[in-house]
């Protein structure tokens, strides 16, 4: 009898946790629609954050460039998978008016992110290299400017005229993002 009672209590506890975990991660229909739509230029998304050296970096300073804003964290497995892909995109398209902005969302901030960036090396071609794009220390206010984060990684691609043209919640597809960047560079050159 005790075993049945204990099983029942554990089952109720699991159902309770699943219910509240689901409610906590659910996005309202209006907010979800806003997150996925292409936004007009100057959609109120400019932000200024500190880089790892303590300098201010703003989205506005990249006006006229294609910007890929990547929300990530040092503890996020899929984020680590993406880093070499983002480095390859930066190397391939940086000279053509493209930049990746890595926005680190670690709760510990710079104290967690700086040692990770200093220590870690990622495979780019045949070599292992440090991250080759700016890393900024993010916060919830900046995430909200892009409709909030359902999870990490979250990637926002912004065109030369400041429009959000793509949002990817979760692991991105290198080929899809690569094609979109190529298309934006071709249409921007006309």
Explain what this protein looks like in three dimensions.
With 190 residues, the protein is of the alpha/beta class. The chain has one domain: Glutaredoxin, CATH 3.40.30. Helix content is 42%, strand content 21%. The protein contains six helices and nine strands. A five-stranded mixed sheet has the order 7-4-3-8-9, with helices on one face. A hairpin with a 2-residue loop joins strand 5 and strand 6. The longest helix has 24 residues. The protein is elongated, with a radius of gyration of 19 Å. About 12% of the residues have low confidence.
How much strand content do the residues show? Answer: 15-25%
From the helix content, strand content and strand pairing, which structural class follows? Answer: alpha/beta
Mean pLDDT: 86
In the CATH classification, which architecture applies?
3-Layer(aba) Sandwich
N-to-C order of helices and strands: HHEEEHEHEEEHEEH
Give start-end ranges of low-pLDDT stretches: 20-42
Name some characteristics of this structure.
Glutaredoxin, alpha/beta, 42% helix, 190 residues
How are the SSEs ordered, and which strands pair?
Layout lengths: L1 H24 L3 H8 L11 E3 L5 E3 L7 E7 L4 H17 L4 E7 L5 H10 L2 E3 L2 E3 L5 E3 L2 H6 L8 E5 L5 E6 L4 H15 L2
Parallel strand pairs: 3-4, 4-7
Antiparallel strand pairs: 1-2, 3-8, 5-6, 8-9
